[in-house]
Amino acid sequence: LTGLVTLDPGYKNSGSCTSEITFLDGELGILRYRGYGIEDLAENANFLEVSYLLIFGEKPTAEVLEKFENDIRKYTLVNEEMKSILDGFPKTAHPMGILAAMTSALTSFNPKSVDVENEKDMYCAVCKTMGKFLVIATWTFRKNMGYPLNYYDNTKGYVENFMRLMFEIPTEPYKVNKTFIEALDKLFILHADHEQNCSTSTVRMVGSSHAGLFASISAGVSALWGPLHGGANQAVLEMLEEIHNNGGDTEKYLAKAKDKEDPFRLMGFGHRVYKNFDPRAKIIKKAANEVLATLGVEDPILDIARKLEAAALEDEYFKSRNLYPNVDFYSGIIYRALGIPTDMFTVMFAIGRLPGWIAQWKEMRENKEPIGRPRQIYTGATLREF
Ligand code: SDX
User: Fold this and answer.
1) Would you say the ipTM is above 0.85?
2) What's the predicted TM-score (pTM) here?
3) What is the whole-number distance in angstroms between the Cα of residue 269 and the centre of ligand 1?
């Protein structure tokens, strides 16, 4: 090896790039997109505004935002040939697997990879990705349910369209619920970017070979699917439901999570960067209470979540390791209240994270980052005759 290689499994102590997009302070529990605090954005912005801010660096004026929303509408019609890919999946296919495959397939409709230097080309690619990904994401659910596929309604907003695309059936027009739309818009904002997490680093890594934007995002979808990452929101609900079905014995599951012999981890707890409360978890916990109160829903699962959180925050094992609830701990409770099925939870995370993936991919290409290619410490066999 020329020069020393520092071994850093999971890149816990490595910086892979410089970036102007998102700032995290794990000790203080700070999250900012382009300098704006997450609490401020969750309160005062909408998801497309935040998407524009992340991708292009500045808050859009009302006119620019309206144009952005209209330009996305130009690309919400998905090529009918894509349906044959959807039909090719078994009914039991997981929505994230379908989403990764179909997103990658979109590359074939855009053979010319994006010319990042060409502002117009890049802007169109952004609108195309924001438009088509949303529709395809809902098609995974429609397929699972055996429902006819829906199309984007250009007279409605982005987040409202998500709910229509998901739930409108010919015999029952979707009844808009403002509380639902606002809660979802906030959830998408909270998921929009998070610096160099596993899936975003994957999007950068794949994009560093100059693979296309859709192909890079497809790789990000696959990385997000893992239960240690975005798949945790589904795993949290399954864990809470299991605790509920086993008589609500949270102490038993806390003990399991601490048992080194037992691979079980408390899903929705802990974080690589936050050694304090995940600021998003605080906002989502409050939103969960509001949504359930508006719906007049007493969800026993929420009670279990609160009980588990209180017990873990008091527990020496968790405290000594700075393990707090993360973004995934409460989000599933809101999705469930909105009627979204558990195996669509990580698709929700992907829809929220899409603008962050696009922003990071664009920055990586604009900065002409080299192709990602780490080294290793070889520990295998020395030379031997075959
Ligand atoms: C997301 O990176 C991002 O920004 C991700 C994300 C984003 O927005 O992109 O924030 C989204 O992925 C949130 C995390 C969702 N995942 C989960 O909730 C799954 C459960 N959490 C853990 O698997 C874990 O906390 C991770 C994966 C989130 C972080 O793992 P690390 O940083 O590699 O920490 P570690 O595995 O080295 O754990 C340190 C110690 C270990 O104990 P010791 O070996 O020191 O005795 O803490 C323990 C771990 O066993 N530990 C847990 C635990 N998380 C860590 N023990 C029980 N339950 C847990 N959840």
Assistant:
1) yes
2) 0.95
3) 7
